[in-house]
Structure prediction request, 190 residues.
Amino acid sequence: MRKVTLFNRISLDGFYAGPNDSIDWFIADPDLDKYAMSGSVGRPDTGLFGRITYQMFEKVWPNVARDPNAGREAKQMADSLNRMTKAVFSNTLKQLTWENSMLLKGDIAEQVRKIKQGSGAGIIIFGSGTIVRALASAGLIDDYLLIVTPVILGAGKLMFQDVQKSSLQLVEAKAFPSGNVLLTYRPAGS
Prediction:
């Protein structure tokens, strides 16, 4: 069965987005990105997105792939995202224009169970709090990779709001000079 990996940034107080979905508090860290992309997240071929995250990524990554001045790591990430199947959960979008994107509606957990049982490599979640909460509650996330950013937001969108309690085991903790810390967890007992 395919594995689902959550890969997201959170503030020290547990928010994945600030007020008005802001992400201006992220501390860019090419060393962390390079480390994570070199093996921590595996080689996923499917990404799970909610509307907001999908639209944010769609504005950036196809352009990075075409930008002759983009750095090597950024271009590799852009190429990977462009090739990846993007499963987008939205009740408001009518069509998707980014290559290899498919629109899904209905029960998130049920749709992801079907995707997990299909063929392919790993599945990754970027952002998309609604998806994270649905899949965490259903026990469908196999690995939690959280970039803890040394910022206290005080308000925004909590990553695990209203998620049922579940125990996780720490697999790895890696600190970076930027102050970001990458924490890798798995459900206890797996």
